[in-house]
Amino acid sequence: MEELRYLIFGQFLVSVLMALGAACLFVWAAASGLLDDVEPVKYQVLEGEGIARDAGA
Fold first, then answer.
1. Which of 6, 20, 32, 57 is the most exposed, having the fewest neighbouring CB atoms within 10 Å of its CB?
2. End-to-end CA distance of the chain
3. Could you tell me the residue ranges of all domains in the chain?
4. Is the model more confident about 12 or about 36?
C-alpha cells in the first residue's frame, strides 16, 4: 500500500511540473511578443509552398 502512495504522488508531481513548464513557456512567449501578430506567418507558409496570396482577403 505504501508503494502505491509513492507511485500516485510521483505521477501527481510529474503532472504538476509539466503544467508549470507549459505555463512558463506560455508566459515567456507572451512576454517576448511571439503571440502579438500571427497573421503574417500564414502568408509566409503560403509563399513557401508557391501559392499566391489572395488579393481580396
1. 57
2. 63
3. 2-49
4. 12
